[in-house]
Amino acid sequence: MNIAALLALIAALVSGVGDVIRQRSAQEITDEPVGHVELFRLSLRDTRWWLGGAAAVVSFGLQAVALLVGSVVLVQALQVTALLFALPVYARLTRHPVTRREWTWAALLAAAVAVFVTIGEPAAGQQRASLQTWAVVVMLLGPALALCVLGAQLWSGTVAAVLLAVVSASSWALFAVLTKGVVDVINDDPWHILRAPELYGWMLVALVGTVFQQSAFRASSLTASLPTMTVVEPVVASVLGVTVLGETLNADGPEIFALGAAVAVVIVATVALARGEAATMAAGGERSAPASRRAATADPEPWAWLHTSAGAHSSGSPSAVRAQGAPRFVR
């Protein structure tokens, strides 16, 4: 197996575990309506957020090495498999069995990703782009994301969740592309990293992605934010990989149609799986509320620390109980 593909799959596994933990933190941290920055500040006081964050750091590290030897298109395509790894993790934590429907979509997603990687054979391009190229990206993407944030202020509910998810996913897509440049500089001469413009853009988009990720989680049901994040990040990253870094897909003739079909199946299966998991698990958390309250006086289970919020922001209100079944399977 290609070393970049192997590292990307391991990164997706780690990401899937961390995302489940971090999503539960985001949904249960407080019942009060708070702004993007305040929600991020509250998250910093939650032990589970830090545990999920540690998993994300490990995943990012593995992705960085994979990007050093592979393409953004390849690495990002394999990141959607975090959904597959998160399925059994969430089932173990909540004792909520994975349905036949979920396994069916999971199998379709795995098969489509395998076809895409095998037929497309994504090839890496250059490691870094010029400042002029990045200026064009900023001029095109910056206003679009700013309008998404403005729209989330004007509308609420599902629309706000989708818009904020687009901002977060696009930021993480930029993070993936910039990672190639950062790793390339470190690999050539670590002492030059502070002079690399990619480093500062890399840190900025990571912060933006994290802040708006938490806000998207809370804006509405996960059936809105989860599919959006899961699909938008690899799509935007792949487009940037091709247009900014000159990456290519080695397919022609009939293979192009097979590749297009695989991409379509990946998107449909990802959306269906993400929406189904979010809805089913949210309902499961609501049904299990009475049992959770009864368990409060019983002996703690081995995984009990994942089911209660850390610190003074914990709440047993109905809204917090409903959120307990809602995981996040995207970075």
Describe this structure in words.
This protein has 331 residues and is mainly α. It has one domain (3-323). It is 75% helix and 0% strand. The chain has 13 helices and no strands. Helix 1 (3-28) crosses helix 5 (82-94), helix 7 packs antiparallel against helix 8 (158-188) and helix 10 (222-244) runs antiparallel to helix 11. The longest helix is centred in the C-terminal third of the chain and has 34 residues, at 254-287. It is globular.
Q: Brief overview, please?
A:
The protein is mainly alpha-helical and 331 residues long. It has one domain (3-323).
Structural class computed from helices and strand pairing: mainly alpha
Name the shape in a single word.
globular
Tally of strands: 0
Q: pLDDT below 50 for ≥5 consecutive residues: which ranges?
A: 287-330
What is the count of DSSP helices, taking H or I runs of 4+ residues? 13
Question: What is the element layout, followed by pairings?
Answer:
Layout: H1 3-28, H2 36-43, H3 47-69, H4 72-79, H5 82-94, H6 100-120, H7 131-154, H8 158-188, H9 197-219, H10 222-244, H11 254-287, H12 289-295, H13 318-323
Features:
disordered C terminus, mainly alpha, 331 residues, globular
